[in-house]
Design a protein that fits this description.
Distance between the termini: 22 Å
Largest sheet: 6 strands, parallel
Radius of gyration: 23 Å
Strand order of the largest sheet: 11-10-9-12-13-14
Shape: elongated
Number of domains: 2
Number of helices: 8
Strand content: 15-25%
Structural class: alpha/beta
Order of helices and strands: HEEEHEEHEEEEHEHEEHEHEHE
Length: 324
């Protein structure tokens, strides 16, 4: 099973709730390429159960589990070097790279509950760890750098959300691809077939009785929204609300001619400045023709826009960032 980083924290909390001793392992340094980005995590119990993977290789992950169990038994955090520069000469990583891991058996249940509570509330939160005195604190707000060399801060961001507003095969395909890609997806549509397909894909489906009754969930900086109407009279009132939001991505389906008419209408409504945020025709130009290809092109563009904003995932001493 593939675990994302929040799922690792949830697994850690689940282990704790059944009174299992755990160690949280964080990737804090890498030299060269590595299978996982800085800040990636894994959890191991004293019995050797684990969630997550940091190397993608069975022998290396087995060694991590062994070291984590030893740290749990001693009750003392430790660092572990793997690959280049490691005392474990028989453990090799791809491309001759090296990684350093921090194995922490001291994380308490209250800290895990707080981190996951902030995540569910869609507020960025970080776990700050002092590797010298082995203390923790949770950090809210904007990153502050530089950190002392003995401190690292691992950020947890809200789950990316996609709002699909429209109807038809393209809307269905986009909701399906986004759900599989890990997005929290909501589909708003006046069409029952679109709503049914959205529910079957795992999205939240909400009937739209008119464009003016569109009431989206909170549109924060981790939310993308795409309008996908064939009848473009539906989309202008919806776009008016979306353009006033903090969404990191806004897109609208349609041809270049349709998009020009759309922009002209929004300009007449006094929204000239905010329309610069609106992507149209929506999606990267990959020559997409089928609904599935169109969905892939849209999600690729959403990903590109999201990754273009640099958000620190891990800060260690002098700030080290991953685009996230």
């Amino acid at each position: 099973m593939i675990f994302d980083d929040v799922a690792v924290l949830q697994a850690a909390l689940d282990f704790k709730r059944r009174n299992a001793a755990i160690a949280l392992i964080t990737l804090i340094q890498r030299d060269g390429s590595a299978p996982r980005p800085l800040g990636s995590q894994m959890v191991v119990t004293g019995e050797g159960e684990c969630a997550g993977s940091l190397t993608g290789t069975g022998c290396a992950d087995s060694l991590i589990v062994h070291e984590a169990c030893a740290a749990i038994k001693e009750g003392i955090p430790r660092t572990l070097r793997l690959g280049a520069g490691s005392p474990y000469l028989d453990i090799r990583l791809p491309c001759g790279s090296g990684i350093e891991l921090y194995i922490d058996p001291l994380l308490d249940i209250c800290t895990l509950e707080f981190l996951l509570g902030e995540y569910r509330a869609r507020r960025p939160v970080a776990l700050e760890t002092n590797s010298e005195n082995h203390s923790h604190r949770c950090f809210l707000g904007q990153p502050v750098s530089p950190l002392p060399p003995e401190v690292f801060r691992r950020w947890i961001y809200p789950r990316q959300r996609l709002i699909v507003i429209g109807q038809g095969l393209n809307a269905v395909a986009l909701s399906q691809v986004a759900v599989v890609s890990g997005y929290d997806v909501s589909v708003f549509s006046p069409d029952e077939a679109t709503l049914t397909a959205g529910r079957q894909s795992g999205a939240v489906a909400i009937r739209l009785t008119s464009a003016k009754t569109f009431v989206p969930p909170p549109l924060d900086a981790w939310t993308a929204a795409v309008t996908m109407f064939h009848d473009h009279d539906w989309e202008i009132p919806v776009l008016q609300k979306l353009l006033e939001s903090r969404c990191f991505y806004l897109g609208a389906l349609g041809s270049r001619r349709t998009h020009s008419l759309r922009l002209a209408t929004l300009k007449d409504l006094g929204l000239t400045d905010s329309t610069r945020r609106l992507h149209g025709p929506v999606g990267l130009d990959i020559g997409a023709q089928s609904p599935a290809e169109i969905a892939l092109s849209i999600l690729a563009e959403i990903t590109h826009v999201y990754r273009a904003v640099e958000r620190p995932l891990l800060e260690v001493g002098v700030i080290t960032t991953q685009v996230r």
